[in-house]
Amino acid sequence: MTYRRPVPTIGDATSAAERAQAPDAWAMPDDLAALDRVIGARRDIRRFRPDPVPDDVLTAVLAAGHRAPSVGHSQPWRFVVVTEQATRDAAALMADRSRLRQAHGMAEESARGLLDLRLEGIREAPLGVVVACDRRTPAAGVLGRATFPDADLWSCAAAIENIWLTARAHGLGLGWVTLFEPAELAGLLGLPDGVETLGWLCLGWPDERPPEPGLERAGWSKRLPLEQVVMRERWAERDAPTSHLRAPEPAYVVAARDRADDLLTVPGSLGVLDAVLDRITALPSTEGGGTLVIAAADHAVTAYDISAFDASVTADVARATRAGTSMGAVAARSAGLDLEFIDAGIACSRGDLVTTDALDEPTYAALLALGRERGAALAGSGPVALGEVGVGNTTVAATVAAALLELSAQEVVGRGSAADAAMGERKRDVVTRALRRVGPVTGHDAVRRLGGGELAVLTGVVLGVAEAGGVVVLDGLATSVSALAATRLEPAVAAHLVAGQRSRERAHALVLRELGLEPLLDLRLRAGEGVGAALATGVIRDGLALRSGVARTLPI
Fold this sequence. Notes:
Helix 17 runs antiparallel to helix 19. About 1% of the residues have low confidence. Helix 19 links the parallel strand 8 and strand 9. This protein is of the alpha/beta class. 45% of the residues lie in helices and 10% in strands. The longest helix has 20 residues. It starts with 15 loop residues before the first helix and ends in a 7-residue tail after the last helix.
């Protein structure tokens, strides 16, 4: 007697006999070619169109991520969809800082290659998706994690791959940006303790259609032959592959880049200058000759013998500036810039940093407001270059830099203009004592308590120019720490900044790296007074003239 096999009404209805007769019956041969094309066409996209992604397409992409395999069916992924421009601006600044930090630790040639590669499209893509892993469930409580505690992170990586392939099939581009300090990105999004980020996914319609991976196309690396990554039975040692790492609205950023792409020249032909031109031409207020703003102030800290020049030199240079004969004034005239001089506290008795705050609250508020008003007024007349005059302000600026970057005096203090080793020691001592007195401080407090009049004015100028949609060209350390303080208050300010030069001051490179900026010039200047910013503005003007005069191509 034979009996029919009980067939379940739910679940797998096949029998062992059926599976034995046709072990390949589960295949989807009609879909294999399409799957192979999608996998082969997946790319890390960095250039995006600003067009919105329809909600139903976004839902389909995220649903694919949610169908990824997860250890113990734990589904630890969480998808944070970011559309707000302010959040994207802050994230882009974080990525720029990390990129420059990474390049700083590489050999020069590799660092230059890294900086030449375009590694993020955070400002341009209409959507950001941050994949976070909720790790708050103890590993021992999830099937499979007791032995492999990081399997939850692997599950989230599998979700990213599902998202990536599905996005590609819909015609979307995706770029996975991991140039972040994880704690910084987690803090930006308010992730709770125990939830870790796997980076930022830029998602949108691609403005490039690369036939092969970008790093491979750039000659940075190539895909290894399959036989080099497949081993049989046990590990077979091979040479390990070398790993090289090379805010306006998205519509404006993309439009600026589109105009550059039309030129009869290779993309990126002007190097760092091209990146600067792309950034500033995306801003609404760039037309006009421009202005050099020089702010001047005395500093009581000179009483500690930290400068090789008498404090009276500040007033002398200020008089020459008004007369049009100082270094800064002549540099402005040569660059075709108007000049605006602001007395931010010459011959004023204020705090010495070591025992008292540099500025009281009403004075700081008034100087900040003055700078903000002047910055907003000048932004529509072209680039606003910054300069400063103030004997002793390299010590002051180094102190502010140390506070904002949480560094020691040893890490930030340079020699300044014509100082000797003994004077350098006195500067470090002053900075150390000042930092100890105030403790941790934020942007406003750092400038008010440890800065001075010209730094307060310049911080206001940066904020005012950015608010008006203009361009700020930075000079040396003092102008750059003012800009850093401004970005701590308003991260979107970073999209309006250009590093005109890198000076010889030790802290200057650190501040520029924190701002995510590469300097246009590196002439080891000590002049101050905005000389480097004026020279750089001339370079920017030449770059704009190149873009205006070079022949344009027709779309294919």
